[in-house]
Amino acid sequence: MGNIITVGISDMKIASGDDILITYALGSCVGTCLYDKTAKVIGLSHVLLSNSDLCSNDSNVYKYANTAIKELVRAMRVKGAAVHRMTAKIAGGAQMFTNNTLKVGERNIIAVVDELNILGIRIVASDVGENYGRTMECYANDGRVMIKSFTKGNQII
Hints:
This protein has 157 residues and is an alpha+beta fold. It has a single domain (4-156), classed as CATH 3.30.1330.200. Helix content is 19%, strand content 38%. It is built from two helices and ten strands. The chain has helices at residues 65-78, 104-119, and strands at 4-6, 11-16, 20-26, 30-36, 41-47, 86-92, 122-128, 134-139, 145-149, 153-156. The strands form two sheets. A five-stranded mixed sheet has the order 1-3-8-9-10, with no helix packed on it. A hairpin with a 3-residue loop joins β9 and β10 (153-156). α1 crosses α2 (104-119). The longest helix has 16 residues, at 104-119. The chain is globular and about 45 Å long.
């Protein structure tokens, strides 16, 4: 077994071989796992918010969907991945509070999907929305993604 690499909130990591990328606490945040099965390169981004225009003086590109996914693709290309071979699996974007008029999770999902569409990366699986948190594990050796939650159990997407 390879290394288990933790991806924090507003963070991104790349892996290969038998490594596993894992991110916790996907509530309204969205995890985006990109995989190039030919290069066997996987990447995981954990975005907090939809658009960097929300905080013009924040330089953390991994915090926002519109900048994090571009940076994830760039970093994967450095490791030999090709955009035309990448597929995406996404999770999170929950509505964690019953009286939340901001709909942060929904806006995050839309922003991630829009950015992937702009880049021409196909979403092959997702576990998004609803009202529960998730943990996302991404396996570099085969691109499988396990979603874990207290309320829904474990599932492979």
